[in-house]
UniProtKB/TrEMBL annotation:
Organism of this sequence: Arabis nemorensis
Biological processes per GO annotation: pyridine nucleotide salvage
Name of the featured protein: Isochorismatase-like domain-containing protein
GO function term, MF aspect, one: nicotinamidase activity
Domain of life according to the entry: Eukaryota
InterPro entries associated with the record: Isochorismatase-like_dom (IPR000868), Isochorismatase-like_sf (IPR036380), NIC1 (IPR044717)
Pfam families: Isochorismatase
Amino acid sequence: MVTDKTILDQVKENIPVDEEESLVLNRDSSVGLVIVDVVNGFCTVGSGNMAPTKPNEQISKMVDESAKLAREFCHRKWPVFAFLDSHHPDIPEFPYPPHCIIGTDESNLVPALQWIESENCVTLRRKDCVNGFVGSMEKDGSNVFVDWVKEKQIKVIVVVGICTDICVFDFVGTALAARNHGVLPPLEDVVVYSHGCATFDLPLHVAKDIKGAQAHPQELMHHVGLYMAKGRGAKVVSEISFDP
Ligand SMILES: [Zn+2]
């Protein structure tokens, strides 16, 4: 443990994230909330191959904060876009073990967020790949996420969900690239809320006994995910408040 802590401290010292303190939102913010994969298969203990095997503080906090933000947004009738990782049983997603199979509870929102399904301000998108931007593409070349930004005239997105360094980061990086490429108007800013994000925990001493598994220490990879998002141009904030 002492060694782990030292490594984490060293990483944080050498690649600091320097979170911006607080994001204050008001009715002129033109903001949308993007919730990435807060489904049972990634968040609920014992819910399949990629779910936590025991209660996990970072994941629980992420679920609480996502649900809290969703309440605030829906209360104000501000737009919310939720990705749900969902796979056809016959189409595996390399390199991951089977997870979030359509029709199972793994691919459904966690209990704390299920209520958003019946909210008018919420758009749900099932996706079968890590990258939500890619998973929003339709066969005709249109993109459900791009259309949502345009239709709701969203200038700022606040992103929460799991995993910080995988699905959240891939989506954020691609959204920023799309914005810079001029195909995501009128989007200006992508904000990652650090306490609203989490990643999974697979420490080295566990991973080394699993064939083909990569070690994935939770705190460290969460930090790296935030660092990478910031490096791509996202704003990383540790607090979000609402201006009445
Ligand atoms: Zn998946």
